[in-house]
Amino acid sequence: MPLARTVTAALAATALWAAALPATAQEFTLRFNHVLGPSEPFHQGFLNWAERVNKRTNGGLKMEVFHSAQLGVEEDIIEQIRQGANIGQNTDSARLGNYVPGIAIINGPYFVSSMDEVFALTELPTIQKWLQELADDHGLKVVCFDWVQGFRNFFTMKPIRSPADLAGQRIRTPPAPIWQESIRALGAEPVAMAFGEVYPGLQQRAIDGAELVYPNITAGKLFEVLKYANETKHILLVNFQVVSSAWFNKLPADYQTALVEECRAAGQETSAVIAEATAKAKATVQEMGMEVVEDVDLDAFREAGKAAYAKLGLTEAVEQVRAEMASR
Questions:
Q1: Enclosing H/E stretch for 89
Q2: Taking the CA of residue 193 as centre, how many other CA atoms within 13 Å lie in the half-sphere pointing to its CB?
Q3: Residue range 251-267: average pLDDT?
């Protein structure tokens, strides 16, 4: 047989073989971005998630995890995701509320009070509706949101025991309406600022404090520029893992299942680790000289927080979801 005909026949056979391969023989890569440092429990949780997905798909779906916003600023990454990029982002419902306003309530003041409540939210009809809307209308597929980062508190240069004590205080918070209005409702002046800018912002007195979780303080060494940890516990921080809907829909069904199920499993495990890490971080900030203020008027803060929902027109959404939770 002439060489040209032999090569042609070989190429044809290769093409037929490739066409016959099952869809799961394809390889996919997800580059996953988060703003936290490599020492925080979430980073190890994301690595665990990636390892399990890789193993479960026999290397067909590989996750590469990037800490400290190595791929870019969170808001910019979310826009890339909406355009179909094979990137994932750890985010929160406050930012997702920019697209579907109702979902922002999950990170609103005093909305949920335990991890069990968070884990149950995904089954509620109203929540499912919002998640579908994010995917269909805005290109954002929520893989899961079982990642609970703990209660957010006010960390300041003066003790805070009531909303009145926050008057005139410039408090760093992420740039999303529910965050901004929550901090304003609780008595402070919100200042939008990226997490990486908090330390220099406190050094330069551009802000008077920040509302964060305890592990953020130790990871960022913010105890060097803060004096008081005020346990307002105003938000139970729930993290959402999002990818592109267009990218997700191209995955084989078993890859989709693996990504979701391992996200939930790793998230719930990491949430338990975070609870332990929070206690350790609290002890550490005290050892480093910060004073913990525990005698906070939580009833006053809860009442004040309602104004945030009212301001954003979300009171009805809160009542609807809470009614669904109560009827479970």
A1: strand 87-92
A2: 22
A3: 98
